[in-house]
Design goal:
The protein is α+β, with helices and mostly antiparallel strands. It has a single domain (2-134), classed as CD59 (Ribbon), CATH 2.10.60.10. 33% of the residues lie in helices and 37% in strands. The protein contains two helices and six strands, in the order αββββββα. It has helices at 2-18, 107-134; strands at 24-32, 40-43, 48-57, 60-70, 77-82, 85-94. Strands 2-1-4-3-6-5 form a six-stranded antiparallel beta sheet, with no helix packed on it. A hairpin with a 2-residue loop joins strand 3 (48-57) and strand 4 (60-70). Helix 1 (2-18) crosses helix 2. The protein is elongated.
Length: 136
């Protein structure tokens, strides 16, 4: 059971290093939230992270964007001009593959999901091992 846990942990931590540490993220230009846009996959340069951007007009979340940006630019807030209106754009960065797939998924919820999947896999492996040992 512990061996399986080691395999799962190594898979999640070593797989990105096998791809030369280049992070794979989703990209979309600045678009209105109501408009559908087909996300494309992009590979970031080694010094960049995935980002999700949210542009607000007052309290209204109106625009979004995704892609790669320098670590030093993360958590920045600045003004963006879009179709004649000025919005306040804020950026949130993350550092694992495809982590900017959904604005509602945060690092803590993703890590919790991975932890739960790992626990389920370990319990299944333990249960299957117990069933095999009890068979005549």
């Amino acid at each position: 059971m512990i061996q399986l846990l080691h395999v799962v942990v190594l898979w999640f931590y070593l797989l990105p290093s096998l791809t030369c540490d280049n992070l794979v993220c989703f990209f979309s230009p600045i678009v209105e939230k109501e408009k559908m846009f087909q996300l494309t996959v992009t590979e970031c340069s080694p010094d960049k992270l995935c980002f999700m951007a949210d542009a607000r007009y007052g309290n209204y979340s109106a625009l979004s964007a995704r892609g790669c940006m320098a670590k030093g630019d993360c958590s920045q807030v600045h003004s963006v001009h879009f179709k004649g209106t000025v919005y306040t754009m804020s950026y949130t960065c993350c550092d694992w593959p495809y982590c900017n797939s959904c604005l509602g998924i945060t690092a803590s919820s993703s890590l919790l999901f991975l932890l739960m999947v790992s626990i389920i896999i370990c319990l299944l492996a333990y249960w299957l091992g117990a069933v095999e040992r009890s068979s005549p």
